[in-house]
Specification:
This protein is an alpha+beta fold. It has one helix at 56-68, and strands spanning 5-12, 17-22, 25-30, 42-46, 49-54.
Length: 78
């Protein structure tokens, strides 16, 4: 099973690629599916794509669950 992980957008490049923070780890993801996303927004990232913009509250709640149940995601491998 794959999960979409909340991430905060730190930077957006001209090619619709974003630098995001996921639990303190920096990754790149595509914003092609979320063209209205802005720096500072939280997005759900799945397979290298931001698939939805979510509220900060939702993102924090989900990240707390992931921290509490590390089997939900390979937190070490992020």
């Amino acid at each position: 099973m794959c999960l979409a992980i909340p991430a905060q957008i730190n930077e957006i490049a001209a090619d619709h690629m974003a630098t995001v923070d996921i639990l303190g780890v920096t990754r790149e993801c595509s914003l092609d599916l979320t063209p209205d996303a802005k720096v500072g927004d939280f997005v759900l990232v799945h397979a290298g794509f931001a698939i939805e913009v979510v509220s900060e509250e939702y993102a924090e709640e989900t990240l707390e669950l992931i921290r509490a149940i590390p089997e939900l995601a390979d937190v070490e491998g992020l």
